Amino acid sequence: MAKSLNIESLTRLAPKLAELSQEVLFNDIWQRDALCPRDRSLVTLGALTALGRLQQLPWHIGFAQQNGLTKAEITEAFTHLAFYAGWPAAVSALACLDEE
Question: What is the mean pLDDT of residues 87-94?
Answer without folding.
Answer: 97
